[in-house]
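User: I'll paste a sequence; please echo it back and then give the predicted structure.

Assistant: Echoing your sequence first, then the prediction.
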Amino acid sequence: MPVAPDLELEAERSHLAGSRTALGRMRDRTAGLDAAAAGDWVSRQVLESALHQRMRALADDPTVALFFGRLDYDREHAAAQGERFYIGRRHVSDEAGDPMVVDWRAPISLPFYRARASEPMGVLRRRRFGFGQGELTAYEDEVLGEAGAGDPAGAAPATVDGGRSELLEAEIERPRVGPMRDIVATIQPDQDVIVRAGLEQSLCVQGAPGTGKTAVGLHRAAFLLYSYRDQLSRRGVLVVGPNASFLRYIGDVLPVLGEIDAQQTTVEELVAATLSRLGPRYAVRGNDPAPAATLKGDPRMAEVVRRALWARVGVPEEGLVVPRGARRWRLAPYEVQELLDGLRAREVRYGAARAMLPQRIAHVVLVKMELAGEATDDRVQNTVARSREVTRYVAQLWPAVDPARLVHRLLSDAKTLAEAAAGLLDDDEQHLLLWSRPAKAAASTPWSLADAVLIDEVADLVERTGSYGHVVLDEAQDLSAMMLRAVGRRCTTGSATVLGDLAQATTPWAVRSWPVGLGHLGKATAHVEQLTQGFRVPGEVIDYAARLLPVIAPDLEPPTSVRRARGELVVRRDADPLRALVAELSGAGGAGAQRVGSVAVIVPASLTHQVATALEQAGVGHAVLGSQPPPAPGQVEFDLPLDVVPAGLAKGLEFDHVLLLEPTALVAEEPDRLTGLRRLYVCLTRAVTSLVVLHAAPLPPELGSP
């Protein structure tokens, strides 16, 4: 790379220093605003909250560069008219209000990601900056347009070599320790198309390992929050991940991009929140065998629980008598049945229809009163609707339903289940669903995740679930049809970004195609975008893992690595792989001591404790992902250079160096071989720089010879 002229580099450093000063001034100005100026208490609370969020958004981390690129426009560009713009994570303006840094999401920043020599988009020069601990250390230029009279003043440094950016490659491959970081400086054109898609459009990203699909989804959320701020500030953005460890891994990305309002959760937390709302003693405490969990996640269960719910509506065998003054007004059973049929035909929620029934009954009574010559008005109708006779009649005919109690009865009573499942589930399937030893009450039931998803389904049938403006769903390939429906209920009037890889589906209840899965989510018209170019996983590693694809996902296009560095792959058989692992990670001569960046030891779940104990005895500092109770201070996951990762928690994570222990045992721990091979594929593709496979047992034959 050409050495930057000192004067030019110093000028860029001066602009960085000035930008930090300007950001501090913006923060001081916000801190000086007084919420006491609000007219009332409510307005003051709103203003205080807004100021607090503004201060958080203006926080400056000196280790993070304020800008990472620059665009020099030609004078013919309608908006820029020859100006120069620095592209960064947030907008920074000087005292006069002129931009010193423009937000990467602003329209003027688009060419930084999309412009190319054949289509410069009005850009003469694109500059990328290199940073170390927040300090500007280098820059690199790419000339896109023809320099001339329209070229902004300044030095004319050399262009990048053949369109290749060494700074870009270095940033992509830079070692990391800790949680996931943003990719705002390295977003590729095909990724940017997804990131900047409109709010009205739902997207599904089928992304191979290392293609950045998770980062793309998070940056899309940040883009939407910026571009549709008013809309989404009212309706919100929800990010749904596979587990708590994953959420901690990605948790810093949106705040670094200045977005602190998006909520992050898991499917289990979503449905557990429904449980706790229904009853403080309801909680997810149990587990289902894989066959039962798979059946409970089957889409047919949606109709089963719907039938079970609406079966609670009775058939009027007796009429209703409503006393009013000296007279009694009667409704025959057939008249009440007509009201019930009319409400059900409207296809409203169970609870909403139940709330309408008293008024419908009162209206019929009012009509009878008017025909008899009595004076009536709305107050009379409301009085009749709230009368003891009508209230009791409605409660008996259309009872209130606790969704948890309904599911408890469905899974513990053979007759109830048989009636609801007739024509949908055969006898063997019904037997599989029924609890062998049901708890006496819903409150004492150790609900499983699959049970809680069914309860969430019923709760929505009773009362509509609120919708977010946008939902980002990651690792969607692992969700059952019923889980997808649960997430889909949270974006019925919004849009969704669905992220996943069918080759990494590691649950027996997973859907097998995106069109089917998107249908269950309620987004059947979503556009499916495929990412196959891996920017993080080295070529040698991805080629080795791809040997499994003909078995685990024969219809998917094999991924390719665009990195020039092939990486390091070592497959070693050892009579004592645990001893070899400890030797690899300990001592000055060990390879682990020479590695730069994050290191993960991915193990079969059954070996987690054994590996952690061996590392502890050898004095190797580490944290164990997903450990319960939470780890002690100094052993927090992602905070240390070394993490022990049970195979089931590896999905979605990346580490510079991975040591994988006993692949055959890892495969054998899954419910079936196909799922086990998919789990192995996930674990093999977590490495960014090097992968070491240690094993005593023979490798799965699908991998072939090393």
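The first strand starts at residue 67 and ends at 73. The two ends are 37 Å apart (CA to CA).
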